[in-house]
Amino acid sequence: MTPPLAIGCRFSRTGYGNELGYTHDQMPSPPTPLPIPSATAAPIAAPSTPPLQPPPQRILVVQPTWVGDAVMATPALRAIREHFPQAHISYLMKRYVKPMYTGMPWADKLITYRTGKTARLAGRTEFLGLITKLRKRSFDTAILLPGSFKSALICKMAGIRRIVGYDRDGRGFLLTDKLLPRREDGQFVPTPIVKYYLGLAQYLGSTNRDLTMQLFVAPSEKRAAEDV
Fold this sequence. Notes:
8 helices; 228 residues; 12 strands; two-stranded antiparallel ribbon; alpha/beta
């Protein structure tokens, strides 16, 4: 097994620094966007492995829980689509954040699940139903933006062969590709979430450094606004 390689310090073999704040221990005409002023471009991650051979054909990207995090995930989502232009990409998200993704040009399918009171009432049936739905779609790769144990467990139970994510919340044994968040004195080093998400895309081979965040509107929403 390849020994852990620190990403978050300066590499003598590459000659440039990387600030994405993680380490790894294994393999490595769309709608008009409404741009959100971005920070400077993210430094490119040192390639730890060659591009996937063969590249994934059916990718599931598990989305963040919160609306603000969804916006900050857009640079990573854009980079994933650009790097895997031929793949079928689905996004898995909680139902209440779906409006943030409607109109995005990078996903082929949006998959939602219930939360809160309705999910509690449905109980185990809702959880198992989601796993069955994902299993039927035969995803070969899952990319986990949130760091929750549940997101990894769902993908594992859905039979997804490759699961890529940060090793947090005790879920490392569920991941095939573990990215290790930087620690100092046993504590996680705070990392801007937009770079944290983009690090996943760069780990998979993307060379996209663009941190520009974007919002989109669906054609129906645009028409509704014009009618006001």
